[in-house]
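Possible regression after last week's pipeline update?

I re-ran a chain I had predicted before the update to compare outputs. Posting the input and the new output here so someone can diff against the archived version. Not blocking, just want to make sure nothing changed silently.
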Amino acid sequence: MKIAITAKGKELGSDIDTRFGRCEYFVIVDTETMEFEAIMNESAMASGGAGPQAAQTISKIGAKVLITGNVGPNAHQTLEAAGIEIITGSNGKVGDMAEKYKNGELSSTNAPTVGRHAGM
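New output (post-update):
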């Protein structure tokens, strides 16, 4: 399964970026093989609507899960509508979070964790 993890770099050893809509990269990990690719978040510098734009990117990639630090209300709504599981409160390294997800150590978030425009 493909999962998307917000990151400050392009590797499994990169730190998690705790912002969703304005994170630097999405590291897309196949949890079965641990193969990954990094995608620059083009909505990071958007003047508005970064969260929903980032959510659309995640959906187009085909990720079924998002792991991040925080997610705002507009992004949360967009991700939920796309059927993407949202896991927040994450920090540390991208690869460690992927392993924790594989081991069932992370749980879903049912509501936004920050207000609008929190990552600006």
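Follow-up from reviewer: compared with the archived run. DSSP finds three helices and five strands in the chain. Marking as no regression found.
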